Amino acid sequence: ELKIKPDMLKRPLNVGFSGGEKKRMEIFQMMMLEPKFIIMDETDSGLDVDALRIVADGVNALRSPERSMLVITHYQRLLDYIVPDRVHVLSAGKIVASGDADFAKKLEKEGYDQYAA
User: Which residue blocks in the chain are alpha helix, DSSP H?
Assistant: First the structure.
């Protein structure tokens, strides 16, 4: 559940919303539109722990064999709630390293410098 208050649905889109409310509304829109491919760029940016869990639950609810998602993040904290199928490191517009969820933990520990172009 995205915990969207009914009054949020009556306001103009994203006007006066907190960062967490905006992210929840983005997830809500995706649920309504049911796209086949979703790109989420730094979905965890500006979220407190509670909002992060709510948004992650929404993202997990969107997972489906018929849908592909590209989730862009620089931090492991989002991946504590959304377990990725694959992790890629992009540098200078190219994939320079790939792995599974454990690779994301390695990146959190060791950093990205070794993969920089």
Answer: 19-33, 49-62, 76-79, 101-110
Residues 93 and 63 in one domain: no
Q: What is the largest CA-CA distance in the chain?
A: 48
Are both 98 and 78 inside the same structural domain?
no
User: 40-62: per-residue pLDDT in tens?
Assistant: 999 999 899 999 999 999 999 99
CATH number at 63 reads 3.40.50.300
